[in-house]
Structure formats: structure tokens, C-alpha cells
Protein 1
Amino acid sequence: MALAITAVREAPAAAERPHITIRGLSKRFDEMVVYDKFDLDIPRGKIISVFGPNGCGKSTLINLMAGLIPKDGGEILFDGMRVEDVKIGYVFQNYREALFPWLRAHENIEYPLKFMRLPKPERRRRVEALVARLGVRLDLNRYPYEMSGGQQQLVSIMRALVIEPEVLFLDEPFSALDYEMTLFMREQLQRVFMDTGTTTIIVSHDLEEAVYVADEILLLTRAPTRVADFVTFGAPRPRTDATLSEPDFVRVKSHSLAVFQREVRR
Amino acid sequence: MIKRRTSDLLVPLIGVAVMLALWYLAVKTRVIDPVLLPLPTDTARAAWKGFNGKLGTDFLITLERTALAIALASAIGIPVGLILGASEKLYRSLEFVVDFFRSTPATAIFPLFLLLFGVDDKTKVYVATFAASLAIIFNVAYGVMNARKTRLLAAWLMGARRHQILLVILLESFPQTFIGLRTGVSLALIVVIVAEMFIGSKDGLGNSIFEAQQLFEMPAMYAAIFASGALGYGLNLLFRLIEKRVVHWAGK
């Protein structure tokens, strides 16, 4: 009994325990070692951006986490569970090739619900609830090819969110969009996050974006990849354009840039 | 989308009018011998008469043969194409054979089919089936192999089972399948008409053209040629319309 109590006391509160733990992760492509005995803890309920030099394995990292590609060694656990036993959402960079063009937008969003054995009216209801929660104004009766790039990516994000995932992965989700759309989508992502608090991991190739959206910025080295720095950016949400000129933002961004430059020149 | 006005829809008719006018003038001014090229009006009269008689029947017979050939070719070509496309290794090992026979003029295989199936009605359909099915196999396999990997990954990530992923692959291959079907229809019609001209034929548009030529009934011959054109154009149009409905996302 005394033992049990000690154990309880020693276990950190759920919110403080890392959500995802990566231990001894190894991955190579042919002769190229990308990850070798890589360790990382990812906190719960935060937006984490992943940033680093080209070819350092940013996307590889989230693909390994999401189980999209097999790992050569090590383990990745979500609250102690393997990825197969966890609900995850994944948003691809190429929305054109990720959505199903033969389905209408709302059918695309409903698609993953089919595999949760939900009856059709319930699927409908969940999509409608999601639309209402996000305040999305879109004609979801249209087909993806009838929509703009940003709208299509928004549909992709909604498809990833509709199952209420424990972790949301986004692989350079806005890089195929124009600047105006990118700004709009950042706001959408922030809204979604403020609403759901889902642990979100976003790969970005734009440092400003990486800092602006994130609570924590994961800076990676060249392959074989290590953590160069894991920087906290604690600006309150909702963040706005004004955030971009605040001293804290400028400080975090220039620090991240310095780390990045150091790693690139290494 | 830009709205088309009624006058825009009439634009294609200009070409028809010009062609008919040139035809009429060429015959009237005797640039072309009226014995070889009758007046459009005479041809139209022959077509009208023919369609209420033997030409009408021949038209339907050719249509039936072509439709039968394309149905058989789809029944063979689509499953075979799906299987070939699903296994890259299998496809690579058979690619040359398929491509070789696809490139062989189907008409070159007539005599062989005559030996195999006899001087029969069915033989015409079989040769056309042969030609069309190779075009369909090739395109279906190609469509399956070019299924977007991201889409399959997305389906898999969302929890799709094997048969649901196969459905995604199938839908991915649809646009290319329709290209194969349209090619197949054109090929089948060509083969059927040529077959009707030669192999102990008694009916069909090919026979109609050939017989009119032999009897030197030029208006009837032109009427039959235009009937073949109308059949080809109509089939192509029909498949385009079906394609637009079924694979509305193609090319977008």
C-alpha cells in the first residue's frame, strides 16, 4: 500500500508527462544514415515545429512517428502505446494528391469515419459539428478540383481532424500555397489548436512560420540528425501580425536562425 | 466557366457548310468527275433511301458487332489490366508481348483467326475483340501503376483495409481506363468494317461499301461511307459523355 502511494506520488501529472517518447531511433536510406540512436521527448498539447537544414530528415521524422515508413531500430511510443493503437491525423504537403477527387469535399472529410464503423447520419453530424466549430465557410458539396489550393488543404486538415486525433502531423502543409493563403491557413491552424489543444507537429521550411505557429521549435542538425536545440516560444494566443514584431518573437527567431546557420555551416 | 452563346454552338457548322459548298461546286464545275463523286444531294437521297432499307440494317449489324467486341474486350481487358498493373514485375515481364501485339495491325491476324474460328460472323467480332482488348489492357495496367502513391498512403493511414485500398486503386485507374475504352472502340470499329469487306461477308457497313463499289453505285457507296463515319463519331461521342459523367475528375 505504501509502495503504491509512493509510486503515484512520483509519477508526474499527465499534463507534464511527455506525450511522445522516441528512444534509440535509427533510420537509414541505403548508405545514408539519417537517424542513429535518436532520443526525443515531445510534450503534450503543444504545437511543435520541426525546422532544420535541407535533407536533415524533418519529414522523415514525422513519417517515422506516423508509421508511414518503417524504422530500422528504436521505439516511438505515444503514452506508452505504439502508433497503430493511437488515433493520428496526417496532412500531406501535396493536397492535390492526398484528397480523393471522386468524392465531394464533405465525403472526403467523412472518409476516415467509415473505418470507425459509424453510421452515415453520425458521420454527417460529426462533419457538421467540425465545420461549425472551426467556423469554416466553404461549400463542402463541391469536388476538390473545384476549390482553390488553400480550400483543398483546409479540407485535408478537416479530414485529419474529424477523427479527433491524439496527435496531428502536418508535413509542410502550406508550402504549395501563395502567401495570402499561407497567412490565412496559419490563422486557421491556430484556431483549430486553440479549440482542440491537440498535440500538433508541423514540419516547416519557413523559419518565420515555424516560430510564429509554435510553442516549441525543434531545430535539427544535418544527418545523422541530432537535436540542435529545442526552443520555447511562449507568446500568448491568439497571435497576430503584431506578434511578428514583438521582442520575444524577434529574439526566438534570431536565436533559431543562429542555430540553423551554425548547423548549415558545420 | 465562360458561358457559350447559341451563336458559338453554330460555329462548327461553318466547316460543314464550306465542305458541302466546295463539294457541290467541284462537281458542278466538273473539276471532279460526277461519276466518281456524285452531288451531295444525290448522296443524301441515296442515304435516305438506304437508311429505310438495307443500309439501315447494315448500320445496326455493324453497331451490334462493334458493341459485342467492345463488351468482350472490356470483360477480358479490364481484369487482365488490373492484375498486370497491380504487379510491376508481372507487367514488366509481359510488357513487350502486349506492346508488340498491340502494335501489330489486327488485320494482319485475320487469316489466322479465319483458320481458328472459320468464315463466320463470330470471327469478325473476335478479331475486333483482340485488337480492342490489347488497347484496354495496356491502358488499365498503366492507370493502375500510376495510381498516386500519396492517395494510397492517405487511405492506409486513415485505416482503410486492403479491399478499400484496392477500390482507391481502381478509381485511380478509371481515367486511363476510359482512354483505353475509347481507343478500343475506334479500333474495334475499324477492324469490324474491314472484316465485313472481305471475309465472305453478306452484311454490315463494310460489305455495303464494298458492294456499292463493285456495282459502281457511287451515291450508295458515299452514303455507306458517311454512315460509317456517323457510327464512329456517335460511338466516340457516347463514350466521351459516359466518361465525363463517370470520371468527372479526369484531367483536373
Protein 2
Amino acid sequence: MAWVVFGVLSFFCLGSVAAMIVSRNQAHNALFLVLAFACLGGLFGLLDAPFAAAVQVIVYAGAIMVLFLFAIMMIDLKGGLPPERRRYVLVLAGLLGTVLLAELLLVARRAFIGAAGTVPAEGSGPAGIGHLLFTRYLYPFEITSLLLVAALVAAMTLADKPDRKGVP
Amino acid sequence: MIPAGAFLALAAALFALGVLAFFVKRDLLTQFMAVEVMLNAANLAFLALAKASLKADAQAVVIFVLTVAAAEAVVGMSIILLAFRRRKTIRTDDLSGLKG
């Protein structure tokens, strides 16, 4: 049963990323990506990580992709993307992707730890993760909050309309 | 039970597809989406190893990756908007001002 779920989810995940490569419509690309992220959320759930699964669907498939769609709506490309595309780039990128996949698979085989545990890791629920975040990973947590404030300020500064007077 | 290797192989395939998309696509927004795919592949590998090692630490790392990805998406998006406002294009072939 788990294998069936895994197969279906991974098929749709890889398939939608591949469709993103083929498709030339940016809005379609964003929606394919939403599908891929939703499938990844299911895979996270399969890995006994319910909190990561929920966050994946809410933050990634929800918030970040809505941001992408906003940007796509704001950038109106006249007449869509031009069809001109160089063939050798495609060949080189395919070669690079294949080599990278082979390397990663080799590494994954070497780093293979054995069958996954049948019991979920201790403290893998939201409470356990929260405990980890506020004890062992307290400093990274605080630094992340600084990063978020910096990103907020940077986004407001960068996306500001240039014709406003009096504001630097 | 599904072994961790299957998830790692899926993560590797996803990462390779993300790299492929990054190099094949020619507009900034879709290339940015490809970066998000790569980040997600890394998250999947983290979670697979979290399950295999019976520790929840990697799940905390996944939360950090998500947060940084959100911040990166916001800043990157505003940079793309700025570039579009100045140059009226987001094709990376046309944005060649840094080419020597």
C-alpha cells in the first residue's frame, strides 16, 4: 500500500517538474510546481513527518507559489515567451543533468543506511520539533528571524516605486 | 516499508530535474522556480535521512530551509520585478549587461 502511494506521488511529482520544463507558459509552470509541491507534501507525510508535510503544503504550495503567481501577473510579457531556443544548450543541460543524477544516485547508494525505521523518530511531532528549535537550534532560530526582517525590509526597498519624492 | 534509498533516489532525480530546468529555461521566473525545486529535493533527502536515523533533528533543519526559501523567494521576486521595470524583459539572454 505504501509503495503504491509512493509510486503515484513520485510519478506526479517528477512528471509535473518535467512538464514545467516542456511547457512555455509561465502561469502553467507555476501551477505545475504547485502540483509537485503538493505531492512532495504527501511524500513528507509518508516519511512520518506530518509537521513538515503541513508546512510544505501551507507555505510552499500556498504562500510562495501565490507570490510567484503575483509576480507573473505583474510582469506582462507581450506575446509570451519567444520560441527561439538553442539546441546545444538543451543537449548540454541534458548531459549535465544525467551526470549529476548518476553522481547523486551513487552517493545515495553509498550513504544508504538501511531500511527505514518502522517506528517514527522520537519527538518527530510538532512538539518535539518545537522543543528542538528552542533548545539545540536556538541560535539558528534567532538568526532566521533576523533574516526574515532583513528580507522584509529588502523587499520593500527594492520593490518601491522609483517616482516617489522625498523617500530615498 | 519503503527503504530510505528509494526516497533518496527520488530526491536525486528531483534535484537533477531542477538543474536541468534551470539550464534549459530562459526566463528568470521559471529559473527561480527551478531553484525552488532543488531546495525541495534537498528537503526530501533530509526527511528521508531523518526517518532512517530515527532522529528528529533533520526535521528542524527542514523548517530552516523552508524559512530561508521563503525569504529568498521574496527578495528574488522583488529583484526580478526591479529588473523587469528597468529593462522591460526577464529573458536571461537579454540581460547580458555583466557579460565582458
